[in-house]
Write a structure and sequence with these properties.
Helix content: under 10%
CATH class of the largest domain: Mainly Beta
CATH architecture of the largest domain: Roll
Structural class: mainly beta
Largest sheet: 9 strands, antiparallel
Oligomer: single chain
Length: 339
């Protein structure tokens, strides 16, 4: 039997909850890192001579998740920083022209927009450089939208104007990161040093996080020798299911193996005695090696004596032998009584 190991980073899919419905936030297939750190704090309870450990107290479970993508995605910024990219806004634009003794004036083709300087103040501004020299603010040189160069040379202009194609996001000091429904899927591989043919893709492992709360930290590091990656980090929040107030779910781990079947590790069948009566639908459970029980669909079972065609309930009081159709060696004998 092959030995299994995890490799690669897989994909990440995130959803927003909008009016109790899931909507796609982003799908990432270009991750360089997808890590889940599951931890819990343990306190040892000691007592007696020499203070030996009597028992341990576990508390403060935590699931921390980090995703790193090589590509820029506006959805990452929106989710991490609690903002939205709106279409249309002010941009910075460059223009250049040649100033000479024949003509030193240039009419800027775009409408100048107000540059927001903060604290409720703004102004229209143009700055320029001649022959790649020092940059200066055009004040006396600017008359409306007409720029007059103070000397001959190649003039570079830079100014603020409106562009309907721009995507603008404002980061507020009242920043609240989003909470997402996150699904991370990575491949499982199989390998064995003594069986070269066993080295292959063998399935997938999926981490399902119902409540993934981002931590609101986004770092932009510009480096001349490598691209800027986008990192999303956060923590899994508790998700309450059912009536048990002391047992919240943080995530689910779903492993699927291509070369294994659900019945491979079944050790025996267990019948629910409350349903061993004529006219009742059988409730048969499969006991697995790890001690878990799962209810088996009756279509996957073989009953002897057989049920009449179209019947799903015990037809008569008798002794029945029940076995797994795909693994007949696993069987259970039950006695069905009258209703």
């Amino acid at each position: 039997m092959a030995k299994y190991f995890l490799g690669s980073v897989g994909t990440a899919e995130a959803f927003r909850r909008v009016n109790d419905e899931l909507q796609i936030a982003f799908v990432s297939k270009t991750l360089t890192d997808s890590s889940l750190n599951i931890s819990i704090t343990k306190d040892d309870i000691r007592g007696g001579t020499g203070a030996p450990i009597q028992f341990s107290f576990y508390h403060d479970p935590s699931v921390e998740i980090t995703l790193t993508d090589i590509l820029f995605n506006e959805s990452y910024v929106e989710a991490q920083l609690g903002t939205k990219f709106n279409v249309g806004g002010n941009i910075y634009k460059n223009k250049d022209f040649q100033a000479s003794s024949d003509s030193k004036t240039y009419t800027i083709p775009d409408e100048l927009a107000e540059l927001n300087m903060g604290c409720g103040k703004s102004q229209k501004i143009v700055w320029y450089s001649i022959d790649n020299g020092d940059w200066k603010v055009a004040t006396t040189e600017l008359n409306g939208k007409v720029f007059t160069a103070p000397e001959d040379g190649h003039v570079c202009l830079r100014y603020v104007t409106q562009d309907d194609n721009a995507h603008i996001a404002e980061i507020s000091s009242n920043m609240i990161p989003e909470e997402l429904f996150l699904v991370i899927t990575a491949p499982i591989f199989a390998g064995d040093a003594c069986e070269a043919s066993a080295g292959k893709a063998a399935g997938t492992i999926t981490y399902e996080v119902p409540r993934f709360k981002l931590n609101g930290a986004q770092e932009f590091t510009m480096n001349m020798s490598s691209n800027q990656t986008m990192s999303l980090s956060g923590t899994a929040l508790a998700s309450q299911d059912g009536c048990d107030m002391n047992n919240s779910k943080l995530l689910r781990i779903i492993a699927v193996y291509n070369d294994l079947h659900w019945y491979d590790d079944v050790t025996e069948l267990v019948a629910d005695e409350d349903y061993l009566k004529v006219g009742m639908i059988p409730h048969i459970y499969a006991l697995h090696k790890n001690g878990t029980l799962n209810l088996v669909d009756n279509d996957k079972l073989t009953f002897d004596p057989t049920f009449p065609e179209g019947t799903k309930t015990f037809p008569s009081a008798a002794t029945y032998t029940i076995s797994l159709t795909d693994k007949p060696s696993i069987k259970e004998t039950v006695v069905v009584s009258a209703a």
